[in-house]
């Protein structure tokens, strides 16, 4: 988000971003004291800044990888010795992670850090002057803490409920149901004090509609989390947002722009988004680094006229030049199984993918110059260093994509390997930033289309229809803004799953969906065959247990 972060980036306070790991009230050094802060709304906003910075800090990296690379949505394979990284990607993909997996650990640290900072700030706010500004600020912080606890409950199931700053005794795990009840009660208590407005003033901050969005997501998954379905409660929470009249579904013409570097408060669908600014150093997202095929960052042998300095607006390339000043690594892709959900040729959401033969914006093919052995490491001819020119062609990732033998997670170390896998460009490469991989694209956490599909699914699963809508009519309302194909005439749970896969690709919700739809144990990708159901929650990391002897490891680990 460009220059809009309610003063957070200009903080003068020195709140330490502590990594709690086990207890969430580690002492922190800060200039934030009752004598100095806060009194005015601007001071409350500034003092709250570290909580939002903490959310931004690792959402698009550790949290993203843990949620998405544990599904068929995304896989980061190895290329020779590249990207082995202690097998942390392989373990996520094949569901063989342990309590020592690096992503499992860093995501735990990320979320407990955010909770700890919220605890500290709420503690300081207790002594601030009473009034509506204080009430709203505390409610916002509690909502952010509830969001972090929801994310922890979703990932780890049974986590300690540490909510009092300065309380030094470590706690054992609360059950998943207890965490669920805590988050629900915190959100309900906060809603009367949260703002119910949209626009720049509340962009990136909790509103009543974020609280209802979290509640809707919890209620939709309540059967998974607690063993008790709560579909009518999900519908009621969705209706609170629908009845506000403040949100609408973006039409086909602007769907893709929702995720561009120029996105922000003007989006009709964003209920809560994380603002990113490429000029800052903390918590930048660089999707293009992982998602763009690496050949989209090298020089090409361009076939065709170069008159006028042709520039491709999608891949952000000028003919014969690289991707601004940063070369993408290009290791992240989707599986053939996930891409199969994109089965409607008239759907705008297909355009978030780079697939097959690649062309410049003027229709000329993108040509790549290499050598025979550079193209194919298994070349056995007489001229390994001989010139080889080919049109860039991205091929699907299947079980047999590796040429190094059955079961290999290594795609190889050549052009064939690097061009394996369809690549997602939903969060379009940021050509406005010429000096680094950082991007300006804000990242949505909750969108209005999710509210529509959550309500539809809750009705389809047995909830009571409201406001004259049916599950089918709600899904068709969304589809009318995404495809020119005919409306659906009936609706199954598999249809709903496909629709959610299309709509929320790369937005960290697919693991949540796969578990709820009973597909998390499916076979897919590069050797994912494990069907252990206990892996629907991650283990408590070793580092957390080492520092808190009262923690009990999740079953199966």
Automatic annotation (TrEMBL):
Keywords: Cell outer membrane, Membrane, Signal
UniProt keyword annotation of Membrane present: yes
Keyword Signal on entry: yes
UniProt cross-references to PROSITE patterns, sorted A to Z: PROKAR_LIPOPROTEIN
Pfam family name, one: SusD_RagB
Residue ranges annotated for the RagB/SusD domain, each copy included: 268-557
Family: Belongs to the SusD family.
Name of the protein this chain belongs to: Starch-binding associating with outer membrane
Chief place where the protein resides: membrane
Ranges for domain SusD-like N-terminal: 90-220
Compartments in which it is found: Cell outer membrane
Signal sequence annotation: 1-22
Top-level taxon of the source organism: Bacteria
UniProt xrefs under Gene3D superfamilies: 1.25.40.390
